Amino acid sequence: MRVELASGGDCELTDDLRPLVLAAREAMVNAAKFSGADEVDVYAEADDARASVFVRDRGAGFDRGAVPEDRRGIAESIEGRMTRAGGSATVTSSPGEGTEVELLLPRSKP
Amino acid sequence: MKRRVVLVDDHELFRAGVRGELGDAVEIVGEAGSVAEAVPMIREEAVIAGVSQERPGVKFLALSVSDAAEDVIGVIRAGARGYVTKTISGDELTSAVTRVADGDAVFSPRLAGFVLDAFREGDRVGDDAELNELTPREREVLQLIARGYRYKEIAARLHLSVKTVEAHVSSVLRKLQLSSRHELTRWAAERRLI
Q1: How far from chain centre, in Å, is Cα B45?
Q2: pLDDT digit of tens for each residue in chain B (194 aa)?
Q3: CB contact under 8 A, B146 and A8
Q4: Residues A6, B146: C-beta atoms closer than 8 Å
């Protein structure tokens, strides 16, 4: 699977960003495992106030309500990780229309 | 009428590959190993195509292996109307060629990200606010391009027509080419393209 990476703004990788990086990695691995798509688009932006990562594929997509227990756990893992870190994860998908995972993490000023 | 294209790259094998990808979608009227060699070819082509005597509206789409910000932005400020990287698919390349030939701009996700970074909000610059700032709508469109959305998908998501999306991208291209923002001008002095 090919990853198309774009970024707007850069910053040092500090500890507070770890949950975001791990959640983004999970989202990319999910896309590789389940979407059936050849390519995933990843866009990251960061400034002092917040950092965001968007992971999108044009693959199979899924219906959140219909996902079996074991796979529902994956989306909850991403959402749980982000929420515990004080941020949020929004997973948007529908069958046949791909999936986008939007990860947002507000940062505390130094 | 098929778009007429001159292929420019110093690697013959790469030109052969692009020729194969474009196939019958465009008419490849010449190949050159450098921009200097290509220019007379392009000018002659414009004459053959019956374009008027004034400097013909030759449009450049950059297709490159480099995805370094300074190369991308340097080429746009030198006059290219689009920048795509070599990971692009054949269909998307053909579509990009058509877009540029029709007068529109083409931005890869990476270029969109660079532009958002170069036009970071809050960095107050100069007098010409219009040229040196992006509008909120332009930012929205750029961010969606950076996220991998195609024009049709952006249009659907923002409830706009594709034409309007194209107009926003063209406006951003113009700002990118003309803005005197520090992030953009410091590279201009170092680049000397024709």
Answers
A1: 21
A2: 677 788 888 888 888 988 888 888 888 888 888 777 777 777 665 555 444 333 456 788 888 777 777 778 877 877 788 888 777 888 888 888 888 888 888 888 988 998 998 888 666 666 667 788 899 999 999 999 999 999 999 999 999 999 999 999 999 999 988 887 777 776 555 544 43
A3: yes
A4: yes
Interface test with B, best of A7, A92, A94, A102 (most B CBs within 10 A): A7
**Which of 35-94 (B) contact A at CB < 8 A?**
87
From the list B108, B117, B149, the residue facing A8 with the nearest CB is B117
Phi (first) and psi of residue B168, to 5 degrees: -65, -45
Report pTM.
0.80
ipTM score of complex: 0.85
Strands, DSSP E only, in B9-151?
A: 27-32, 61-64, 82-85, 106-107
